[in-house]
């Protein structure tokens, strides 16, 4: 059974809700972003009441947002003990990476064999362009947003609706490690170069080339696992 984490810092300041958009989605996105950016750090206690007050929201959408984060593996609820930001697990990270690699390689193989639509190309190129801008600004958060868009666009391009959903869920197990690993412009530049190589192979119909570039890219996160563990042992189980 997991140890009871010590209570952490205060709830991050959240943006005001836009009631013209789904409230649950906004709370979920803001909390996930706070976890990835370590405003909510691994092991920190999560208070439903404090979150509701921060958003000026009722409990129902907060509970739904927390349920989604629980499904993502980003928070854990211990009976009679409370809810906490989950700690990182090397076992779960390796499992998520294995599943993600299998799914994304299958997607790229399919796209190389069937071709990719003009609309899908535009989505992928938009994500790449966004990464370039974020890198130039040194904006790691924005870079991660467009990084996610790149991989989501690849999955969406297959036309397989469940694929994108599955990938988002499995990527959640890697997102915090990825956020810790993206530390400087050189690292962002390397990721962008790898994305461009995958897309180049894809548009050229070079299936094996695209797959090899993608495999190398996806395994990069495991290459920094030991470094992140050494630097942030307190974040791991």
UniProtKB/TrEMBL annotation:
Domain HTH gntR-type: 21-88
A UniProt-annotated Pfam family: GntR
InterPro entries membership: GntR_C, TF_FadR/GntR_C, Tscrpt_reg_HTH_GntR, WH-like_DNA-bd_sf, WH_DNA-bd_sf
Keyword annotations: DNA-binding, Transcription, Transcription regulation
GO terms of molecular function: DNA binding; DNA-binding transcription factor activity
Name used for this protein in its record: GntR family transcriptional regulator
Originating species: Agrobacterium bohemicum
